[in-house]
Amino acid sequence: MSGKTITRADLAEAVYRKVGLSRTESAQLVESVLDEICDAIVRGETVKLSSFATFQVRSKNERIGRNPKTGQEVPILPRKVMTFKASNVLKNKIIDAHKQSRGD
Amino acid sequence: MIKSELVQIIASKNPHLFQRDVENIVNAIFDEITDALSQGNRVELRGFGAFSVKNRPARAGRNPRTGESVHVEEKWVPFFKTGKELRERLNAD
């Protein structure tokens, strides 16, 4: 387990390597893929990427929270959050790869 | 929105590309993220969010129906934290 951090640049590099567009265009396409997903989520759509994951928006009700430092009660306002649900394909790939690298 | 719809949107905005190419581009992106997580790496996409893998140690679980004690194996689960910009856009109004 190497513990690196992958960024947009690495994704663009993968597109460049696998699809054969220019580096500039690869980077632009990575950006537009992420933008389209964000826009759909902000519109309230569920985004399903088969064999990867589902992104969904959930509305949270107001609830009473507590400042853990001061113990003071504060209202947490109603808000929207995005949830990520990994597909079984993704979950199994991750588990298998980690088990293998551990040698069982 | 499903993956094929995402491909269509991107293809319609890039008329010089074949739909087949756009499919390969979208797959390349998510395959790369999958590979990174499989190798135990983090994927950080500013404005969107960050993917990481969390380790869940083996534990003694219980069958809720029978109360029987069962061994739950160690596992690694993908985790996602929504980026600041997207979180703010979701609550813009």
Automatic annotation (TrEMBL), chain A:
Signal peptide: none
Source organism superkingdom: Bacteria
UniProt keyword terms in alphabetical order: DNA recombination, DNA-binding, Transcription, Transcription regulation, Translation regulation
Gene Ontology terms for molecular function: DNA binding; structural constituent of chromatin
A cellular component annotation (GO) from this entry: cytosol
One Gene Ontology term from the biological process aspect of the record: positive regulation of metabolic process
Alphabetical list of NCBIfam families matching this protein: himA (TIGR00987), PRK00285.1 (NF001401)
Subunit structure and binding partners: Heterodimer of an alpha and a beta chain.
Protein name: Integration host factor subunit alpha
Organism: Zhengella mangrovi
Gene: ihfA
UniProtKB/TrEMBL annotation, chain B:
Pfam families the record matches: Bac_DNA_binding
InterPro entries in the record: Hist_DNA-bd, Histone-like_DNA-bd_CS, IHF-like_DNA-bd_dom_sf, IHF_beta
Keyword Magnesium: no
Keywords: DNA recombination, DNA-binding, Transcription, Transcription regulation, Translation regulation
GO process annotations (BP): DNA recombination; regulation of DNA-templated transcription; regulation of translation
Entry-linked SMART domains: BHL
Domain of life: Bacteria
Cellular component GO terms, alphabetical: chromosome; cytosol
Gene Ontology molecular functions: DNA binding; structural constituent of chromatin
NCBIfam families: hip, PRK00199.1
HAMAP family: IHF_beta
Membership in a protein family: Belongs to the bacterial histone-like protein family.
Subunit structure: Heterodimer of an alpha and a beta chain.
Summary of the function given for this chain in its UniProt record: This protein is one of the two subunits of integration host factor, a specific DNA-binding protein that functions in genetic recombination as well as in transcriptional and translational control.
Database matches in PANTHER family: DNA-BINDING PROTEIN HU (PTHR33175), INTEGRATION HOST FACTOR SUBUNIT BETA (PTHR33175:SF5)
Protein name, entry field: Integration host factor subunit beta
